[in-house]
Amino acid sequence: MKNILLIRFKAIGDVILTLPAVQAVRDNFPAAKITFLTSKENAGLLRGFREVNEVMALDRAALRCGNPLRVVPEFAGLLHRLRVGKFDLVVDFQGYGETAWITWFTGARQRWGIVYGKGRAWAYTRGVTRTETGDVQIADANLAVLKLNGLVTASVRNQFCLPADALAAARNFFAEQKLDPARPTLYIQAFTSSPHKDWSLERYLAVAAHFRAGGVQVIFCGGPRDVEALRPAGQAGHVVATGIPLLTAAGIIQLSTVIIGGVTGMVHLAVAMQKRVVMLVDSPASERGLPYQHSDWIVVPGEKAVLSKVEPEKVIAACRQAFNESGGSVSC
User: Where are the beta strands (DSSP E) in the chain?
Assistant: First the structure.
């Protein structure tokens, strides 16, 4: 295989959870050119995928806007790039109808993909169903697609390589906020993309207050839509970072000691950066997005309880253990 195309559009966590599979593809085809097709908003994230040679970014918003002046150039550009890529193998980790069509249109001799609907199987030379992969963690399902197509996946790696300029931007952020990278730091990602998976901000603030009283630096992070929602954190005197570049946020994670949040992409990113995390999970038995290879790094509600009922004391205890295990022991 000389040219390989991998596809995953969204979201941040799902893109991150392709990392072990991307690294397995590289192990099997060390000399191949690997291209990754993703949504425009996630393109920068691929800079941390060391095995990827080229990123193909798709402006899906432009395709869906209904304006021919935006739709036609974006669509024509995509088709051109797919054809000139002369791909030998395409692996669709998304399984959407649109990614099935994209996979087929490449004309690649080998087209593998996850098949969620029977009507999409035609697009692949080998479509893998959820029954075949099993009800496993998303990263393991991606690896299963490769294994069921004959690739060797014995040596599993999950490593995101932070670009140097992203780390430098994070250091600048620390300096501007008068934070010391040498001190224990708690990074809080309070909101997920699914509100039913969120713990209340009030309880996160209780955890933050506890550790700040013990000398721990606390940073609340979020996306542009979280500016107003995180205002109470700023009013409580905590450092708040919202709407900053994705890789700068990754750099802040690198400089932090413990990362806490729900089932969200930034927590998965932290795991891939070998950071100690505490993930709050509502229903672990059915959740396919637990911390990869660290399913014990979670806090769950008691039997027949819900996440909103988890008391701050339980999360504080989990965070204290995380600080101790990460070498950032705290006395609170």
Answer: 3-7, 33-39, 54-58, 89-92, 110-115, 126-129, 185-189, 217-222, 239-242, 258-261, 276-280, 298-299
